[in-house]
Design brief:
Layout (H helix, E strand, L loop, with lengths): L1 E3 L2 E3 L2 E11 L2 H5 L7 E15 L9 E11 L13 E7 L2 E2 L2 E2 L23 H24 L3 E5 L23 E5 L5 H19 L14 H7 L1 H28 L29 H12 L5 H10 L9 H12 L13
Antiparallel strand pairs: 1-2, 3-4, 4-5, 5-6, 7-8, 9-10
Helix pairs in contact: 2-3, 6-7
Length: 346
């Protein structure tokens, strides 16, 4: 990132990619397959290069250059040696015969569209989930060794063969001989069960509803709304960030097919995209619908306002316009047209 013309803009973006490389004729002659496709790695570099020709202090002359780098396979190296990259291709994309003045790259994060790496919204849930996996593995390991009873004997001949089953009996002439089964009687495994229950409750608190036990009693819409407020806040932040990133991408597409000189000249009035941030499952109640209709009949609100309130309250479908709704209501009020009478032959 560099500060150019009073703004922090990316001047170097390096992307590590995986690409498919077909086998060459030389590989096929050495016993390879002409139709085999091997996976290879490459690095795509986007550079913003300054040019002195035609540059001013307010508008520096910048050019986007795209480079493709791949590992150098011409020289032998050990596995411990660092990979040596070789420049395979370098080009400058043109728009209307001119190079791009900025890097066509949009960053995206959970809370912003800047290159800074932000904390994952589910990072705490991921950490607890990993701990839950480890506890479950230890618990299953303990169950594997302690679930099946183990036979034991005392005072029997060591050379004798003892079989377990309903058709055999263990007999010993030694006084005080005994036999039995070893069974798990401690509380060691209960510790793992309690720890896993704690992790499941903690994941439910942190936002995961997958392992939360459902309540056996009914909840009001207000109680559900309050319980999900935190989750809606996180989703709203992510949706807002996605809207900003997608708006930037669409502005790049708009600028590519327009006549503006710079991508910054495309404003939000020309291109913008906003995702729906209404994640609530609560709709309008019957009493609220009656109140809105009464306010419209009394002239306190317009019909368009009433229709918008119904749409936001999930009474009307999202894609239906106000004019379409009025037309449908008018069609219901009009009398039905009787079908034409059937003609009878003389």
């Amino acid at each position: 990132m560099e500060r150019i013309n009073g703004r922090n803009i990316p001047t170097l973006v390096v992307l590590h990619e995986a690409t498919s490389v077909a086998a060459t004729n030389g590989a096929a002659m050495d016993g390879g397959d002409d139709f085999e496709v091997k996976a290879s790695e490459q690095i795509r570099v986007l550079r913003l290069v300054r040019e002195s020709q035609g540059a001013t202090e307010s508008r520096p002359n910048l050019k986007c250059v795209v480079e493709i780098w791949r590992p150098d396979t011409t020289t032998a190296r050990k596995k411990s040696d660092r990979v040596k990259w070789k420049l395979m291709e370098s080009r400058s994309p043109l728009r209307l015969g001119k190079p791009l003045p900025l890097l066509p790259f949009v960053f995206h994060g959970p809370r912003h569209s800047r290159p800074e790496v932000d904390k994952l919204p589910l990072a705490d849930v991921i950490a607890v989930n990993l701990d839950h996996y480890r506890l479950n593995a230890d618990f299953k390991h303990g169950v594997h060794f302690t679930a099946l009873p183990t036979a034991w004997v005392s005072g029997f001949d060591k050379a004798s063969t003892l079989r377990i089953g309903s058709s055999t009996a263990w007999v010993s002439e030694t006084v005080g001989a005994a036999a039995g089964f070893l069974e798990f009687m401690g509380h060691g495994l209960n510790t793992f069960e309690k720890a896993m229950d704690r992790d499941e409750r903690l994941m439910a608190v942190l936002g995961s509803r997958l392992l939360e036990s459902n309540k056996k009693v009914g909840e009001t819409a207000e109680a559900i709304e309050l319980r999900q407020t935190g989750e809606h806040s996180i989703l709203s932040n992510i949706a807002t960030s996605v809207s900003e990133s997608l708006s930037q991408v669409l502005r790049w597409a708009y600028w590519w097919n327009s006549t503006e000189e710079f991508p910054d000249d495309i404003t939000a009035e020309q291109v913008t995209m906003e995702l729906n941030t209404d994640f609530s499952m609560k709709g309008l109640s019957a009493q609220e619908i009656q109140s809105i209709v009464a306010a419209w009949q009394a002239g306190a609100i317009s019909r368009d306002t009433m229709t918008d309130l119904f749409r936001r309250g999930e009474v009307l479908p999202e894609g239906r316009t106000n004019q379409e709704e009025v037309k449908l209501v008018g069609a219901q009020d009009s009398p039905a047209v009787a079908p034409p009478a059937a003609k009878t032959s003389p």
